[in-house]
Amino acid sequence: MQLVLIPPGRFVMGNEKVTLSNAYYLGRTEVTQAQWVAVMGTKPWSGKDESGDNRPATFVNWIDAVAFCEKLTEKEKKGTYRLPTEEEWEFACRAGTTSQFSFGDDGSKLPQFAWISDNTSKAGEPYAHDVALKKPNAFGLFDMHGNVWEFCSGEYTSDRTKEERPHRADSGHMRIAAGGSWDSDHSKLFPGSGPEFYCRSASRTWPVPGNTSKDKGFRVAWTPPAKKK
């Protein structure tokens, strides 16, 4: 699992100022199918167009993603793997920017950084693609925009900066997924709701924790073991 150290910092999330006091680690890419199989031993995407070792692990739900992190933690016995908070995810996606995207406000540049409908379904390839083929953001993270929505910890609330409740796996409350996906395009029905809207740094949706889909996956956060005194 390749990890990137994300520095502490401050940013504006919605209408509130958020401070992340401690550095943390985030997966360089979304968890791939090969990585999922190595830890969980299952292939939920088997027989689907989405199949591919370097493609994101899809057809897994939020509960599955939490279980993956717990099992990987147990397997490596070094630090703690978990889902990032929404604050951690958005801060890492922005990579120091205040623009709509990590690369600025020009949505026409999205295909350089993201798998979206323009270069997937409209190109005859309606599925998530191999990770790390597009340009990374300034922190060196790939596919933070598009490809698959990425699960975050905590429960969904309409107030984005409200303190998150503990993520109980048996709770039916909606969760959070961020960043948009290759399939995020409803512009035919609703003008202005294409990839440029859904794949912004601040974009979020609210999946039911037990539901799976072709356009949702995750990347891990990692907390190193506490230093011995």
Overall average residue pLDDT: 92
Roughly what fraction of the amino acids lie in strands? 15-25%
CATH superfamily assignment? Answer: paralog of FGE (formylglycine-generating enzyme)
User: Would you give the CATH topology?
Assistant: paralog of FGE (formylglycine-generating enzyme)
H and E order: EEEEHHEHHEEHEEE
CATH class division: Alpha Beta
* Cα separation of the termini: 28 Å
The number of domains is 1
Helical residues, percent: 10-25%
Low-pLDDT segments: 161-171
Strand order of the largest sheet: 1-4-10-5
- Global morphology: globular
How large is the radius of gyration?
A: 17 Å
User: How many individual β-strands?
Assistant: 10
Q: Structural class of the secondary elements?
A: alpha+beta
Largest sheet: 4 strands, antiparallel
Can you offer a commentary on this structure?
The protein has 229 residues and is of the alpha+beta class. The protein has one domain (3-223): paralog of FGE (formylglycine-generating enzyme), CATH 3.90.1580. It has five helices and ten strands. It has helices at 33-40, 62-76, 86-94, 110-113, 195-198; strands spanning 3-6, 9-13, 16-20, 24-27, 80-82, 149-152, 176-178, 204-205, 216-217, 221-223. The strands form three sheets. The chain has a four-stranded antiparallel sheet. It has a four-stranded mixed sheet with strand order 8-7-6-9, covered by helices on one side. β2 (9-13) and β3 (16-20) form a beta hairpin. The longest helix is centred in the first third of the chain and has 15 residues, at 62-76. It is globular. It starts with a strand and ends in a 6-residue tail after the last strand.
